[in-house]
Amino acid sequence: MSNQEAVEIKEHSEKVHELDSLFKPKSIAIIGASSKELSIGNVILKNLVHYGYTGKIYPINPKEPEIRGIKAYTNIFDVPGDIDLAHVIIPSKFVPQIIEDCGKRGIKSVIINSAGFSEMGDEGIALQKAFLDNAKKYGVRVFGPNCQGIINTDPAYKAYCDFTFTFPNSGSISIVALSGGVGAFIMQSLFDLDIGMRMYASNGNACDVSISDVVKYYGEDDGTKAIILYTEGFSNPKEFMDVAKIVAKKKPILAMKSGRTEEGSKAAASHTGSLAGVDISTELIFEKIGMLSFSNEEEMCQASMAFSTQPIPKGNRVGIITNTGGPAVIATDELVSAGMQIPPLSDRAKNILKETMLPEATIGNPIDVVATGGGNHFRSALDVMMEEENIDSIFINFVTAPFTDTDEVARNIVEVSNLKRKPIVCNFMTNLSLERFQVTAKILKDGGVPCYSFPTTAAKAMGALYKYHLVQSRNIGEPENFKNVNQQNTKQILEKGKAEGKEFLTSADTYTILSNYGIPVAEWRIANSVSDSVKAAQEIGFPVVIKADAASLVHKSDLGGVKINIKNADEVKNVVEEMQQKFNASDLKFFIQKFLPGGKELIAGVSAKQELGHLIMFGIGGIYVEVLKDVTFKISPVTKLEASEMLSTIKASKLLDGVRGEKGIHKESVIEIIQRLSQLVTDFPEIQEMDLNPIMAFEDKAFVVDARIKL
Ligand code: ADP
Ligand code: MG
């Protein structure tokens, strides 16, 4: 066999996916099928039949000869043919044995709808472990337990393995939701919007088949053009990132997480922990791997309509065609705030339109074809926009003026949309209780033109398409690996700190670690006495800063433990003596530091997140950090591009460029500090929290003047 043949065979065999038995079952056993109306075992059977499942259904029930007219079997061993998938709808205590039986019977996947497992405390956890062990033994994949199930609308399968009540048309959007309730209303919302669905999965306790597995499966499914994902977090965020990163480049993942924001109010000892607030890491995951994050479920569903029918724009330039003024203005506002532009038309385009438009039309961008404009006017405007090189997408405002042939307008929009050259969204303003306009609406709908009833909604959908263009073209690159770092010494310091049971490292250790990682710090000395302090200050060179240094002093300046701009030996003596009186900590020392006035105070920090690594923070620093809360986060390791995005995404980013004659800062230095910080915590995951606050940033360089490391 040639290599080429080997590759082909391998590729072919990979087409049969392990989860095909779940999503594309040729036969399904319903263990716990019931003739009792309103029971899950009855509804699932009913749904499969009602939806037109193309495979074989085997109800399993020891007492009933048939259920809903389908022959039932006492157990799975009596079933004559192969079984790909089994629904398990029996009391939880019997589930481990049934899974063992399924394994013996050669069933490849099970959907455990039954509840009573890990969501129910210790006993349930033990049962879940027991059946999972049995499943592993036989290689049975488990979906659930305590879940709805899956739906595959592919006409070849029509597998409605779920007890929900929405019967979607086939389409190209696939949904995955941990929560069945949310999944079901998203499915219903797509149905109401007349958007076809491809597959659906809601996996409840997700003990085996995870959200990551499902996303990977959808990623490889050619029929899935876009994915909608809803979750409350990830049990294995690293795995999810690895999987979804690849899928998100291939097809859009529209994602939403609940339980966002609401700043954590409890005062934490260091800034990074408290500023991170409640779980923001899931959204950072979305951002890092290029998923489209939504905070509004309705917007997410509305946007999916555009994704299911339209191509992705190649840029941010929108052409607007309208037959009424005001809505175009509203749309423009929304498009612009989504980062898009409305460029002027070329002379070529204007010349054509002068010939084709009504005399009262406005020729420009927007093109106002006016309310009396008919199909040929819309068509000419569309054709012109399609040919314009500096237009990437087309926004249509279409009000069904009663004195025009609105069907003709719709047909023309559909014809151009079908070319799939540039995405089109339509704000379609009409009265759907009139039969005449229902016909127009149907022409647009059947023609795959995403229609919205508000200009803002339509513009937001267009904005989402554009955002995905940005995602596809954004390459964050690989994290830099700075060579000139001293890992060995850092390791020793951290081990010593751990051995001594320290919560925070001493200042000396902290600054040594920063220097080990090439993070520039203001020159410093530690002194024990007045004379030591004077000597240190003289070595550093006046003016200096003196900071009271003891394990118990966290926010030093609040307690009067920071004195800046100390110009001579006498002042050193006074300050040190004063501090000796004020602080009677037994470990009190004096941190003498070069005074670096006139810089911009920035903050960078890290906080460890279980299962995920660290979050890196950057923002406006100094003593007002908690008041301003102008900070931004990324998941480590942070690449150069991500670090520079951090500088540009804070609210006060313009401050870094300098305002009103004030000098800007040397961004490259700060970007490098963020990257080096990221490398440090990647090398030493045991670091729990770290704050560099402030980093004094100047026109030509930047230095850390206060730092803390928590183990
Ligand atoms: P803490 O955060 O514990 O209160 P800092 O060391 O951050 O103490 O000092 C508080 C403030 O003092 C800083 O935000 C900064 O404005 C100023 N400061 C501290 N060290 C220096 C320095 N070396 N040069 C200039 N200003 C400094
Ligand atoms: Mg500080």
Number of helices: 25
Largest sheet: 7 strands, mixed
> Order of strands across the widest beta sheet?
9-8-11-10-12-13-14
The helix/strand class is: alpha/beta
The radius of gyration computed from the alpha-carbon positions, rounded to a whole number of angstroms, is 32 Å
Indicate the proportion of strand residues.
Answer: 15-25%
pLDDT average, as an integer?
A: 92
**What would the principal axes of the Cα set say about the shape?**
flat
What is the total tally of β strands?
29
Query: Which ligands does the model contain, each kind named once?
Result: adenosine-5'-diphosphate, magnesium ion
Task: Classify the helix fraction into a percent range.
Answer: 40-55%
Low-pLDDT stretches are 4-14, 261-277
Q: State the end-to-end distance.
A: 57 Å
Structure in words:
By secondary structure, the chain is an alpha/beta fold. Helices cover 40% and strands 20% of the residues. The strands form 6 sheets. Strands 9-8-11-10-12-13-14 form a 7-stranded mixed sheet, with helices on both faces. Strands 24, 25, 26, 27, 28 and 29 form a 6-stranded antiparallel sheet that branches. Helix 8 runs parallel beside helix 10 and helix 12 runs parallel beside helix 17 (455-473). Residues 4-14 and 261-277 have low confidence and may be disordered. The structure holds adenosine-5'-diphosphate (ADP) and magnesium ion. The site of adenosine-5'-diphosphate (ADP) has 21 residues, from strand 21, strand 22, strand 23 and strand 27.
Produce a short descriptive summary.
With 711 residues, this protein is of the alpha/beta class. Helices cover 40% and strands 20% of the residues. The longest helix is centred in the middle third of the chain and has 19 residues, at 455-473.
